[in-house]
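F.,

This is the one I mentioned.
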């Protein structure tokens, strides 16, 4: 017998609901590896044998006005690192940065926020062959109001004129991190022997243990949780992919299908967004949770309305 406002909760409907929940769990938590901070600071430098991050915090550091230099000596663990994997970044997250030095294969990637670039500093400047061997590689990146230059082992490999002052677009509320993105989504594996940053006339040793720290779980949690999804594609996916999930859920429920569907997917979304805090490559966002519930509720309302017209 059909109940008003719903549809019969037969075995097929329950099976569909179970399948929807399993698919949702896989799609939102894959891969299942739990994030751990594998970084460590030793007398010889910063070590990243597994994914981790070190944060640098120096109260006297200010956004440069005329000149920025980064001197790095690095030894990569593998030439097959992508992302680009972050050696040094001055950023908020993977999508918003002032400057980033990364590895993409054997290539040194320099992303520089500047007028006309994306918020993360794309298009980047590329120096191929820097990470072709697993040995200590010293390189230096110099940025002024008019030029960007890169030297590797004392040899100039890139010298570009800039169209406008890059520092005019930089954000002062960003953070400096080593071996990963600030929020932990772009790990680099290897060893940093030297990292020195000169801002105008003041030089900082980024490997100074007094100013470098390994973030705790709570520190990382605060950095990883977002209010809004990072892209329009994420927004659309989090809403429209949950519409059929809500349809299937309503089909498995008898009474108050719309309200019960909304409550069920609210609980599931809370659980999944909480788990994403622990997962590499995942960025929990409050907007994801809201859009998931709205999408599922719309699907349930659609199913319930269709059932009442039969």
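My design for it:
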């Amino acid at each position: 017998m059909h109940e008003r406002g719903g549809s019969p909760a037969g075995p097929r409907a329950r099976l569909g609901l179970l399948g929807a929940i399993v698919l949702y769990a896989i799609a939102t938590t894959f891969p299942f590896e739990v994030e751990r901070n594998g970084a460590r600071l030793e007398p010889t430098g910063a070590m990243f044998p597994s994914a981790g991050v070190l944060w640098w915090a120096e109260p006297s550091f200010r956004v440069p006005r005329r000149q920025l230099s980064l001197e790095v000596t690095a030894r990569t663990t593998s030439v097959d690192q992508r992302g680009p994997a972050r050696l040094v970044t001055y950023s908020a997250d993977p999508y918003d940065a002032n400057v980033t030095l990364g590895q993409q294969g054997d290539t040194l990637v320099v992303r520089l926020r500047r007028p006309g670039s994306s918020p993360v500093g794309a298009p980047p400047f590329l120096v191929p062959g820097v990470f072709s061997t697993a040995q200590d590689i010293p390189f230096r990146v110099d940025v002024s109001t008019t030029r960007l230059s890169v030297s590797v082992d004392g040899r100039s490999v890139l010298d570009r004129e800039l169209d406008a002052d890059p520092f005019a677009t930089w954000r002062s509320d960003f953070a400096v991190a080593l071996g990963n993105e600030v929020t932990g989504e772009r790990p680099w594996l290897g060893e940093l022997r030297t990292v020195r940053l000169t801002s105008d006339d003041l030089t900082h040793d980024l490997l100074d243990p007094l100013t470098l720290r390994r973030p705790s779980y709570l520190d990382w949690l605060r950095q990883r949780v977002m209010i809004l999804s990072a892209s329009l594609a994420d927004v659309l996916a989090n809403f429209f992919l949950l519409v059929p999930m809500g349809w299937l859920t309503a089909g498995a429920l008898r009474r108050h299908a719309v309200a019960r569907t909304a409550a069920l997917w609210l609980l599931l979304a809370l659980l999944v967004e909480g788990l994403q805090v622990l997962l590499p490559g995942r960025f929990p966002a409050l907007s994801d949770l809201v859009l998931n519930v709205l999408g599922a509720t719309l699907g349930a309302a659609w199913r319930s309305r269709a059932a009442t017209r039969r």
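The chain has a mean pLDDT of 84.

Talk soon.
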